[in-house]
Amino acid sequence: MAKKKVPKKAKRRLVVFGPIAIFIIVYCAFTLVTTSIDLYKLTNEEKELTNQLNTLKTDASDLKTEITKLQNKDYVARYARENYLYTRNGEYVIKTEEKTKEEKKETKKDETYIVYACIAAAIFIILFIIIIHHRRKKKKSSK
Q1: Backbone φ, ψ for residue 106 (5° rounding)
Q2: Contact yes or no for 129/121 (Cβ under 8 A)
Q3: Which domain holds residue 28?
Q4: Is this prediction's pTM over 0.85?
């Protein structure tokens, strides 16, 4: 195989324009990547802000309905009795302790552990019965 001779002008062009072309390609790739990352961040921020706007709108509507309810004297009296322990003449307040959310979660966890323990015990009993039955069959067949 004979080597092809590359003219000096072609070599000079490669030396001069090659680094420029590589720089332009790298610059375009870098710009494309950074722009796509910025676009991704902005779309996520838009989703978060949209969710926040929706929650604020629902809160605003809830507050407006609460304002209209507070215009009613009976509602205000009932609200004060329930939340601030006010009483009418002849009424007594019996205060009971309510479980906090954390206590409710703990009791729920305890209940799930009890359920898992019962399931594990049932599986253990079933396996024990199967093993005993299998051993009895072996003894009968070996006699």
Answers
A1: -65, -45
A2: no
A3: 19-91
A4: no
